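quick one, two chains, predict together pls
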Amino acid sequence: MYNPTVARLTYRALLGRRRALILFALPAMLIVIAGAVRAFTGLDDKIAADLLGGFALATMVPLIGVIAGTGAIGPEIDDGSIVYLLSKPVKRPTIIMTKLIVAIAVTMAFSAIPTLIAGFILNNNGQQIAVAYTIAALVASIAYSALFLLLGTVSRHAVVFGLVYALIWESLFGSLVSGAKTLSVQQWALALAEKVAGEGYVDATVGLPTAVALLVAVTVGATVYAGQKLRRLTLAGEE
Amino acid sequence: MTTIDIDHTSRWFGNVVAVNDVTMRVGPGVTGLLGPNGAGKSTLINMMGGFLAPSTGTVTIDGTPIWGNEQVYRQIGVVPEREAMYDFLTGREFVVANAELHGLDDAAARRALATVEMEYAQDRKIATYSKGMRQRVKMASALVHEPSVLLLDEPFNGMDPRQRMQLMDLLRRMGDDGRTVLFSSHILEEVEQLASHIEVVVAGRHAASGDFRKIRRLMTDRPHRYLVRSSDDRALAAALIADPSTSGIEVDVQEGALRIQASDFGRFTELLPQVARAHGIRLLTVSPSDESLESVFSYLVAA
């Protein structure tokens, strides 16, 4: 279920495009902010939790997930170069699985690692806050990658839909409508972080069993569906 | 020896019928798929290449359905019309990746690059390639596994004459080897130079099939229409209609011109200036009025 050639092409496509600059810019921003906060306010567990939860997990992880998830397949389908992968005796679900693994690896590398570094800068992992949010970022990376890879497979406007989901649904509706929080990757990831961090620093609205069940269901469901979609993908040509 | 069979196949997109009840068999040798733009050539090639499901009917390779069966790519090589490829790779990296996806090693990629004579530029990024170079690297990527069937969608588009000749030589050799080579084109001369067998599609229908000489004859023997203006239209019309090479003349008063239908193309083109001279008539305009490919093809469909 993994093809090293497909993986290599996907890595190069993801990291070689101009979009990749955002992959570097967002984590750099997080670390700079963390350094500035630490310099001005000193060690503060509450501020550390707020920054990691409010910026790292709520904004940076989904944005990187959108870029890596949709970017792993969307541009190839748009410009038609996917034909060179499809015209090979390689199973289509294998192509999807490989691209998912690459998207997850890239999202984790560019979101979880900077989160951990920022956490240590902010409060030396006091109350396990850095580790808690890093675990949340790792888990969210998997679900976001699967979700946005599916979007990239089914829609030409995957980036727009991805941004709408990540920024409007999760952030805006999530804070206004409590029901929306149940259907939010961010909240599921927070449910895990809550168990790791010290009491009162992480607040998730979803219980852990529900969160895990939904995470698994979304990841597996999106991946299987994307594999099906790719099997039936038609290239209509330019006529 | 591999054969692709298209059997009573139609394909529509919403309300638009792109391919309408086509039945054809493509066997070893070079076959040209000829038709005007928008006739359904790409749709047919996409169905033969497994990128599009037929709406009705079947498309099979040696009896096995092509759609939804990635194993057919062990036998099929595809050269798509679209330009997009992995521009951030070098030509060599691209062909090596294609070989790997077939489970082959670098040697296969080297052979393919040598076949298309692209070794000299193989270490440059594809983004820097000309259209002809891209076309050759696409060819190499389709040839790495030495397929028994090669499908090419408008392969000569954007090539200069020398590149066109090289590619024709290569395809001819592959056809002589007993491979099944199918290429599409909307240019009769291209097809005529290369293909021993021609399939013509017009407006989604299979219009003609067979030897190019037969089709060429159909095309030149068709009635030709001319728009002629002269110093004395009626006198010219009277003189021309006396000869059997002219099958009809209309005096278009509004346009101030004659619309002439000639049944014998060669004889008419000699006759017209002679008749004009003999009657002291000056020819002001002589223009063929239906030389567009579409009208040639629509004549073929009716034939």
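The two ends of chain B are 32 Å apart (CA to CA).
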